[in-house]
């Protein structure tokens, strides 16, 4: 069994592996967490918050699926059903997926990856977390104050006439938007100004490129959502006649404003996951990433295209036919950078030495799910088929494949990949993989039948359905239960490792980017001296050391025996 | 197992400010230049988000103006161009003093910086004073967004909350009796709203006088006390803001009385009835467009959000004044002044767009 080398031993030429005094325990008390400026602690608090919201939204999903076991009433009436799918959507979108990878994982990993001591504006970073909590509290308040039944899209004119807590929720969205803006702004500035010596733009790990593209969207699109939310609040309060047709307003204008944000927001959800997958696949295939520049540019391309396709949500809303055709064409073109990424990941794995670690399993699940989610998007981008598929379960299945399946698979991969770095503990690989298998099967079982339901005409957001749909609905619900249980198993495996897991080495998977150069967990300051950055994908720069149970820099390994090459084979 | 005590590098873990002694340089930056560049990029990005935030409003403006140009032609005549122009001049001047202040900060001239910031703050307050008078005047004439709007033609409600669907055609389709009834009701509500506006204004004015008095006393007491610099500076900022708002409001009231003779409402209505040249060719008399109140929705949303930004800017400038009093800014550390200056210029710039778009139609 590998143990962690005592690097205080002067004979050892290895860097510090596990650090007893680290950012997690260097100061104590709730104030040292709540008012911390340390990006890692803020990231951990985000992670806890996001996880809590995920389980809350997940419970809603379970209840919804349970209700759909039968066309008749099981748990709730139609009004409760409307409120529940709205809150499920709103919580999952605004509280889980949007801050999931960028704010939680990005906060912890981004500065360490850059060899920096912190993000550019630590106080703004803490402020963004406070705003997140403040915004989340509005959602909780909305649940108490009569719920919300508009769908997460707040379409007018229903959102100005319903008597649920629309204003409270919108204010929550407004506040969460600023949380997102501040995170994005912080990351862009950090990447621009705080890269270490030697790290040029094209020597950045691809996760940073993805976060950069995401942050661009966050700061460019979110303000529009903010002002749209404000205008809708004012519309509801004073009937100023902007969006409400009863007062001369234009409800389609609301849809334009809303999707101008919310379509790019879809890429806020998926781009960071793509960045994670770029890292995970390269590291766990022990191979240099294939087509680095193409992946980097395609992130930026997706961010740019993302701003030009919002109209594809409105093909049946009565926009002009010319506009619809243009939006359709641009939507198709988004598939080009997405496909570039997928092919590069596949080529990276080709002839790689693939280690089926839990993180890699999640990354492979991502590839499978994203391929299906992306390809079914083409059906919806096609004008003629969209008329048929619009507002059916096909749409529900498609966006769950992309937003839930892909984004969350990315998040899970990230959590497992960086868990040893974040907590300093190794989780149980066996149970991790079982959890991954359950999540993967459960997810597909839940949402694949929904494609079939959609093509057969099952409309979305309906509380009841025709009897012939029941079989597929039951299948879907069973999948949801499996997904829920597996997510709980994953969480249990990870939480167990905090208490009983063995101590992690600095570089358990053999990554070559900078975050693996500091100890696990990192000290408060990350790096005492700015590290020198090289190519983050030269996997040969680290070799496996059995004594440590992790990878060490190749130059430290020269004198020692029992070394293996980067691909994990024994050296001859 | 490695224990941290054996590792000297971990000593920084608790207090990471020990490494360098300059409190003006945050621990995670290597140099003042890096810190400045970081802040500069940050504020520019923030300004980008601000522009996009307003872009929603400008988009809304563009859509409605292109759909209903007659609404904008008709309703913009109720805005007072002179007051708008005065406010534009005030804001432009404040931009000048702000830029001058940045220059002073770069040269290390603390007194000059303080003077510039104080003048900028005062200008912002004057702007708000004038704006509050304009809002009060609009409220007085029921030129308000949404339900609160009443047509200046007959002082009857264009739409009431009970029948929003028919509201947009209300002016056209009313019978004589209805009209008379409405007239009565409108007069009544007009009276009460007028009274309410007047009361609210007098309360606000009184409150401002109290604030001026208290903060003046505070400033006088604390002025020479070296231990209470922060409090004195805050009192000074409050005093300047309150005086500025009063000044702006009273100046507008004065202008309104002398510039508009006795009956401003009638004149404005007359202005509204008098057709603009090209419009007169099409119709004999300019009718009130159905969606006239949409203009006031646009007006209040845009200027309201802008006014909130002015208030935010005033808070930021006050914070700068407090820090200047403490001597925080030096020739190599003046980033905050520069950044807030940029923000202030953007707020001015938005007004530069708002003024012609709202006041100078036709």
What would you note in describing this structure?
The complex is a heterodimer of chains A (572) and B (362). With 572 residues, chain A is an all-alpha fold. Chain A has one domain (36-564): Up-down Bundle (Cytochrome C Oxidase, Chain A). Chain A is built from 16 helices and three strands. Chain A has helices at 30-34, 39-67, 78-113, 122-144, 158-161, 166-193, 206-238, 251-284, 292-306, 321-349, 358-381, 383-389, 393-423, 429-455, 470-500, 554-557, and strands at residues 542-545, 550-553, 563-564. A three-stranded antiparallel sheet of chain A has the order 2-1-3. In chain A, helix 2 runs antiparallel to helix 15 (470-500). The two termini of chain A are 22 Å apart. With 362 residues, chain B is mostly helical. Chain B has a domain at 44-159 and 176-191 and 242-359: Cytochrome c oxidase, subunit III, four-helix bundle (Four Helix Bundle (Hemerythrin (Met), subunit A), Up-down Bundle). Chain B has twelve helices and no strands. Chain B has helices at residues 32-67, 69-75, 81-107, 110-140, 164-167, 170-173, 176-222, 229-259, 264-273, 277-282, 292-325, 335-359. In chain B, helix 11 packs antiparallel against helix 12. The radius of gyration of chain B is 26 Å and the shape is globular. The model of chain B is unreliable at 1-19, 156-188 and 278-284 (pLDDT under 50). Chains A and B meet through helix 6 and helix 7 of A and helix 1, helix 5 and helix 11 of B.
What is the element layout, followed by pairings?
The complex is a heterodimer of chains A (572) and B (362).
Chain A: H1 30-34, H2 39-67, H3 78-113, H4 122-144, H5 158-161, H6 166-193, H7 206-238, H8 251-284, H9 292-306, H10 321-349, H11 358-381, H12 383-389, H13 393-423, H14 429-455, H15 470-500, E1 542-545, E2 550-553, H16 554-557, E3 563-564
Antiparallel strand pairs in A: 1-2, 1-3
Chain B: H1 32-67, H2 69-75, H3 81-107, H4 110-140, H5 164-167, H6 170-173, H7 176-222, H8 229-259, H9 264-273, H10 277-282, H11 292-325, H12 335-359
């Amino acid at each position: 069994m590998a143990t962690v080398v005592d690097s205080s031993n002067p004979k050892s030429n290895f860097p510090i592996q596990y650090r007893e005094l680290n950012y997690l325990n260097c100061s104590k008390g709730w104030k040292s967490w709540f008012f911390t400026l340390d990006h890692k602690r803020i990231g951990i608090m985000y992670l806890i918050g996001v996880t809590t919201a995920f389980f809350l939204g997940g419970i809603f999903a379970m209840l919804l699926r349970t209700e759909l076991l039968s066309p008749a009433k099981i748990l709730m009436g139609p009004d409760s059903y409307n409120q529940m799918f709205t809150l499920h959507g709103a919580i999952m979108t605004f509280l889980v997926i949007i801050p999931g990878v960028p704010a939680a994982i990005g906060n912890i990993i981004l500065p360490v990856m850059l060899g920096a001591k912190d993000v550019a504006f630590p106080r703004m970073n803490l402020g963004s977390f406070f705003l997140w909590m403040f915004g989340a509290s509005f959602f909780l308040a909305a649940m108490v104050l009569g719920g919300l039944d508009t769908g997460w899209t707040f379409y007018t004119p229903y959102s100005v006439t319903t008597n649920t807590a629309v204003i409270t929720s919108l204010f929550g969205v407004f506040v969460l938007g600023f949380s997102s803006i501040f995170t994005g702004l912080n990351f862009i500035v950090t990447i621009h100004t705080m890269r270490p010596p030697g790290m040029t733009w094209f020597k950045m790990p691809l996760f940073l490129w993805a976060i950069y593209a995401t942050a661009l969207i966050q700061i460019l699109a979110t303000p529009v959502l903010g002002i749209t939310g404000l205008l809708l609040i004012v519309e509801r309060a004073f009937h100023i006649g902007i969006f409400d047709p009863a007062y001369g307003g234009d409800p389609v204008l609301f849809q334009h404003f809303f999707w101008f944000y919310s379509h790019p927001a879809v890429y806020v959800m998926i781009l960071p996951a793509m960045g994670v997958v770029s890292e995970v696949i390269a590291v766990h295939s022990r191979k240099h990433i294939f087509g680095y520049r193409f992946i980097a540019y395609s992130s930026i391309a997706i961010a740019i295209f993302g701003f030009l396709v919002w109209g594809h949500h409105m093909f049946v809303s009565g926009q002009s036919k010319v506009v619809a055709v243009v939006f359709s064409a641009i939507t198709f073109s988004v598939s080009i950078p997405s496909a570039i990424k997928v092919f590069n990941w596949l080529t990276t794995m080709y002839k790689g030495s693939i280690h089926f670690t839990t993180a890699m399993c999640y990354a492979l699940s991502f590839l499978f799910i994203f391929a299906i989610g992306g390809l079914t998007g083409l059906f919806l981008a096609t004008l003629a088929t969209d008329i048929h598929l619009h507002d059916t379960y096909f749409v529900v299945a498609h966006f769950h494949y992309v937003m839930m399946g892909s984004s969350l698979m990315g998040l899970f991969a990230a959590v497992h990949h960086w868990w040893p770095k974040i907590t300093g503990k190794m989780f149980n690989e066996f149970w991790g993989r079982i959890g991954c298998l359950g999540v993967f099967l459960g997810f597909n079982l839940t949402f694949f039948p929904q494609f079939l339901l959609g093509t057969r005409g099952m409309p979305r957001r309906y509380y009841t359905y025709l009897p012939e749909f029941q079989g597929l609905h039951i299948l879907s619900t069973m999948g949801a239960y499996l997904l829920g249980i597996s997510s709980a198993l994953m969480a249990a495996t990870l939480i167990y490792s905090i208490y009983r897991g063995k101590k992690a080495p600095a570089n358990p998977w053999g990554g070559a980017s900078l975050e693996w150069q500091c100890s696990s967990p990192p000290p408060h300051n990350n790096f005492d001296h700015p590290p020198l950055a090289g190519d983050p994908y030269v996997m040969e720069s680290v070799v496996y050391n059995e004594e440590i149970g992790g990878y060490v820099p190749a130059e430290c390994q020269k004198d020692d025996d029992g070394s293996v090459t980067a691909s994990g084979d024994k050296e001859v | 197992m490695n224990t941290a005590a054996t590792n000297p590098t971990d000593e920084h873990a608790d207090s990471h400010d020990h490494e360098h002694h300059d409190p003006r340089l945050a621990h995670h930056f290597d140099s003042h230049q890096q810190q400045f560049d970081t802040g500069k990029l940050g504020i520019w990005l923030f300004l980008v988000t601000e522009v996009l935030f307003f872009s929603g409003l400008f988009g809304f403006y563009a859509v409605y103006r292109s759909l209903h140009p007659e609404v904008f032609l008709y309703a913009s005549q109720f805005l007072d161009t002179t007051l708008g122009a005065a406010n534009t001049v005030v804001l432009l001047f404040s931009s000048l003093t702000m830029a001058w202040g940045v220059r002073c900060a770069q040269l290390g001239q603390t007194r000059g910086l303080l003077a510039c910031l104080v003048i900028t703050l005062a200008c912002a307050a004057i702007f708000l004073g004038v704006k509050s008078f304009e809002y009060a005047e609009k409220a007085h004439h029921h030129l308000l967004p949404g339900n609160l709007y009443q047509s200046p033609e007959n002082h009857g409600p264009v739409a009431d909350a009970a029948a929003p669907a028919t509201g947009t055609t209300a002016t056209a389709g009313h019978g004589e009796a209805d009209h008379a009834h409405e007239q009565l009701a409108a007069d009544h509500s007009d009276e009460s709203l007028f009274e309410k506006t007047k009361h609210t204004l007098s309360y606000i004015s009184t409150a401002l006088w109290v604030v001026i008095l208290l903060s003046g006393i505070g400033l006088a007491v604390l002025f020479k006390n070296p231990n209470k610099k922060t409090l004195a500076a805050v009192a000074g900022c409050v005093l300047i803001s309150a005086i500025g708002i009063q000044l702006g409001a009273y100046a507008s009231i004065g202008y309104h009385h002398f510039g508009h003779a006795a009956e401003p409402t009638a004149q404005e209505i007359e202005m509204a009835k008098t057709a603009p040249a090209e419009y007169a060719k099409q119709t004999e008399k300019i009718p009130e467009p159905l969606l006239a109140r949409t203009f006031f929705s646009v007006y209040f949303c845009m200027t309201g959000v802008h006014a909130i930004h002015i208030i935010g800017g005033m808070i930021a400038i006050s914070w700068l004044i407090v820090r200047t009093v403490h001597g925080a800014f030096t020739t190599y550390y003046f980033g905050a002044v520069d950044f807030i200056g940029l923000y202030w210029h953007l707020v001015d710039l938005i007004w530069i767009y708002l003024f012609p778009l709202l006041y100078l139609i036709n």
